[in-house]
Amino acid sequence: MLILKPNCEACDRDLPPHATEAMICSYECTFCLDCVNSLLSNVCPNCGGGFTRRPVRPKTARREGVSLAFQPASTERVLTTKSDEEIKAFAAQIKAIAPWER
């Protein structure tokens, strides 16, 4: 089950569970759409993979026991330890390679 991290790991923007601008890689590294496009060039600075929109977990249990009320989002904020310069240099090396080819 997805953790649903509460923030962008680059700019620390709030990304609540219903945020449609939350993006994740296959390891659930979480960034906002603005950072994915402008800073990261669709390259995860942690794994080198690409990003996809994070699904929104339902607020209402339409099936018994399945909703944010039963599986709440994480409250632990995560921030990258890499500088903007390190992120841009890493992305520059592989951004021309399609994410599914990396």
Automatic annotation (TrEMBL):
It comes from the Bacteria. Residues 8-47 form the RING-type domain. It holds the Pfam family DUF1272. This is Urease. It comes from Alteromonas lipolytica. The lineage of its organism: Bacteria, Pseudomonadati, Pseudomonadota, Gammaproteobacteria, Alteromonadales.
